[in-house]
Amino acid sequence: MKQEVKKVLDSIEKQSQEEGNPCWIISHKTGEFLRNLIIERDIKKVLEIGTSIGYSGLWLASGLRKTGGKLYTVESKKERFDVAAANFAEAGVEDIVQQLFGHAPDVEIPDMIDMLFLDATKFEYKYYLSTYVFHMRKGGIIVADNAISHKDALSDYYKLVVDSDQFKTELLKIGTGLLVSEIV
Prior knowledge:
Order of helices and strands: HHEHEHEEHEHEE
Low-confidence stretches: none
Strand content: 15-25%
Number of domains: 1
CATH topology: Rossmann fold
Structural class: alpha/beta
CATH superfamily: Vaccinia Virus protein VP39
Strand order of the largest sheet: 3-2-1-4-5-7-6
CATH architecture: 3-Layer(aba) Sandwich
Number of helices: 6
Mean pLDDT: 94
């Protein structure tokens, strides 16, 4: 991992701990998992729903730097969008990160993707999936954060990916819970 990225991640973690995680950043272990998944699977194109201040995007970009990939990340709150842009620039990853502003189901993405990372409004996960699954190939990976901490809010999404023959899904007890689905 580039030193610039590590420095910004450490700074965000420290600030988040001091302030009680007001921007709901993912856990460090979740970040490591995402980075390693990208590298192990040689993932090139990732769509993140819920940029927030860019913490998870930095982990994703760190993996994508190794694979020669690109991150598309969607945020609907202007203040967070701007903070994320500054964090991406400070970490030196703005060349592989394309920020998209707006409400995720309404945002057009410019590419096919290999991985979809969901970490935004929980009850909308099923809409995010139904919007963007058509931009994914067989073998594509969908990672939904907060699968344990927000299980009730994700019940429709959970039912969708578990009951469908289109996905092979596994619940991982990492961070606040990750529901990882592969398109089969």
